[in-house]
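Deviations from the work plan: none for this task. Representative record:
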Amino acid sequence: MANPRRPASGSLAGHRPLSRRRGRGPLGDRVMPKLLLLCALVSVFTTVGIVVSLSTEAFGFFREVSLAEFFGSGRWAPLIKPQAFGIWPLLAGTMLITAIAAAVALPFGLATAIFLSEYAPSPLRRVLKPVLEVLAGIPTVVYGFFALTFVTPHIIRNLPGPFQDANVFNALSAGLVVGIMIIPMVASLSEDAMLAVPRSLRDAAYALGATRLEVATRVVVPAALSGIVASFVLAISRAIGETMIVTLAAGATPSLTANPLESIQTMTAYIVQVSQGETPFGTIEYKTIFAVGMMLFIITLAMNVVGQWIVRRFRETY
Amino acid sequence: MLAGSTHTNLPARKIKAKIYAGVFIFSTLVGIVVLATLLVRILATGLGNLDWSFISSYPSRIPERAGILSALMGTLWVMGFTFLLSVPIGVGTALYLEQYAPKNRLTDIVQTNISNLAGVPSIVYGILGLTIFVRWFALDRSVLAGAMTMTLLILPITIVASREAIRAVPRSLEEASYALGATKWQTIRSVIMPYAMPGMLTGIILSMSRAIGETAPLIMIGALTYVAFVPGSAGLAQAPLDPFTALPIQIFNWSSRPQAGFQDLAATAIIVLLVVLLVMNGMAVLLRDRFQRKAQD
């Protein structure tokens, strides 16, 4: 608590009244609030920077390619002649990956949350929570490596029937691994929501003779529903924006297919593909990444806004 | 609440409850089993190549001679600058929001904005870095451009962590400082900051462990895939503007090659990356422990 600027003195006689000291107070109190506000504004500038950097080039793109073609055409081939600029194959690829990931992450994530919040004794919780954090902290490029070199050759191709002929790059492997990656997100956000449900509601249900399962699924889950739905929305948004797993394991073939054993391409993987190549700046091929990036940004932003809105609008307060 | 036929048949309900308990345990194990498989698989593939020459060699076309020196050093340089940039901006924003921000529209905008930024995909930050830092600021494909992009990427997490550390400062200490006649900034500098700093550093190190594995933004800003020198080799002052590669980029590059030799190297590089992550998390935990002990004094 030592304060070097104001040496302790026995009497206050030498001091002017605080409020009138040079009329303004010490230097730090005049400069720092403004400096700190500037720091806080960095995040606002970041948003502005994202919007500006995406839209300037994206506008250039849409001057050459009509919105009708972008949303109307079913073929995406900016890098080969004849060129085509229909976003649907990339959107379909992203949706296929997201659907597979959601099919894994939502049930397993929710069940994990129920187990952690309603079943697990607290020593077990103290072990399981950090393990889930590790799962969430594994870099996505590592998951991509795992999908490509393990899940596809050693799991999917060992399944019977059509799985044996799965492409080296396929949506199934990437989607499954993206799903595993977002399990911790669903689990921890849902668990937070369940822990906020008051004990008295559970006790009341037990007193009426409910089993533990009935308490979990008919009291706790409905009471925590807004938080659970929000965790779903945020996790799906994360899956849509996931890049390295799909770039490594799902392929680079934009196609309008629902077959998860084929090579596809997502919006994110396309952006990586172009930025890795030798595409010169300023060409229409190069501008595609900004148009696709804009799509990606708008979709994920919308989902995040919806997720936060659900939390605020439907939160049960006890 | 328990309407329907369920309340009549107690034994059946109890059996159902038992079955579902098993389902929940099984579901929880899925994530853990996958994690274990992943780690075992990577150790089994990669451990064979891990030796000192792997760490001290540059990448090579021949798998046996290839190493990660430039990638590891690139990662350390980028993360070093990310740390230097994240501390003032993250801590500054947190201090502003916790201590100064009036309840007005601007504050609302800043807060909503931060939570929205947290959900923006990392590749979009890459596009931002490419346009603004690489092209407009003319920083080219440099360490500094990479660090600035990473700083913005982890900003939402650093801010949240720093705010939590500031909120953990006991109100009584703050009030004691005001009672002694200290001004707001004097209180922040001499009371709040020393108390909250370890907590803030812990949060920033943890958020950097998020950034260290990020690959997509670095690909976007054009981090190179083949670099046979380390940043700073042409003079340390030059290092921030040197081109670079990074560990995740090297892993991505090796993973995407068809030859098994390079895929094994990718696993070895992953081991190094995970060790770096482990060290950073260890540092964070140590700091947190020291912080807690100090708080008890």
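The CA atoms of residues 223 and 316 of chain A lie 7 Å apart.
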